[in-house]
Amino acid sequence: MLNSNLLNKINVNDEWYIQEYAIKLILEFLKPNSTILCPFDKIDSEFVRVLKRNGHKIWNSHIDDEIDFFNYIKSDVDRYDYIISNPPFSKRKQVIEHLFNLGKPFAMLIPLVSIALKPIREKIDQCKLLVFNKRIKFIAYNEWYSLQKSTKWNCLYLS
Q1: For residues 132 and 136, what is the distance between their CA atoms, to the nearest angstrom?
Q2: Is residue 132, in this structure, part of any structural domain at all?
Q3: How many CA atoms lie within 13 A of 136 on its CB side?
Q4: What CATH number is associated with residue 89?
Q5: Distance between CA 82 and CA 159 in Å, rounded?
Q6: Are 5 and 50 in contact (CB under 8 A)?
Q7: Which residues of the chain fall below pLDDT 70?
Q8: Got the DSSP string for 10-48?
Q9: Domain limits at 152?
Q10: Cα gap 79→133, rounded to integer Å
Q11: CA-to-CA distance for 62 and 66, rounded, in angstroms?
């Protein structure tokens, strides 16, 4: 895939990792033994680990591996049952627009306020929302620290 450079411009604050408890909430909505694309995840992400551990076949990709989500086309995602991840919040509008264009069932963890964004608002009647009853905690890693932190937004899964 060619790199569109869109995700290369993500905000450095976008690399936050979700914890297992927030992923387990969507398991009951997935058909058993699904094939799932996790397009913003490295091999050691919680999405990849939890979904695999629960019997799903996972294909993960990440911009660090020079695989840009925005280069996926419909034929690239035909083999997947779902696209599931925690996209960069700074690109959530573009991510959701692209997901609608791909036409594949998805579940994306995004800030609750995102439902006011035009591409979501225009198709909200086609969407399902799973809203958390409290702010979820994310983890940020870098070479110096590991930090557990709540976001300043309430989050939801949009599917």
Answers
A1: 8
A2: yes
A3: 23
A4: 3.40.50
A5: 10
A6: no
A7: 1-15, 140-153
A8: --GGG--EE-HHHHHHHHTTSPTT-EEEETT--TTSHHH
A9: 33-158
A10: 34
A11: 7
Q: Shortest CA distance to 131 belongs to which of 26, 41, 34?
A: 26
Number of domains in the chain: 1
- In sequence order, which residues have a C-beta less than 8 Å from that of residue 142 and are 6 or more positions away? none
Tokens (6 digits) for 38: 């996790």
**HSE-CB for 140 with a 13 A CA cutoff:** 11
Question: Residue 1 falls within a domain, yes or no?
Answer: no
Q: What pLDDT, on a 0 to 100 scale, did the predictor assign at position 135?
A: 81
Distance CA 127, CA 119 (A): 11
| Residue in the structure block whose two tokens are 């397009």 | 39
Is 99 within the bounds of a domain?
A: yes
Residues 116 and 38: their CA atoms lie apart, in Å, by 24
Within a domain: residue 5? Answer: no
Q: What was the pLDDT predicted at 149?
A: 56
Contact between 35 and 81 (Cβ < 8 Å): yes
Residue in 125, 133, 129, 134 with CA at minimum distance from that of residue 114: 129
Q: State residue 10's pLDDT score.
A: 47
Q: Which of 126, 74, 122 is nearest to 99 (CA)?
A: 74
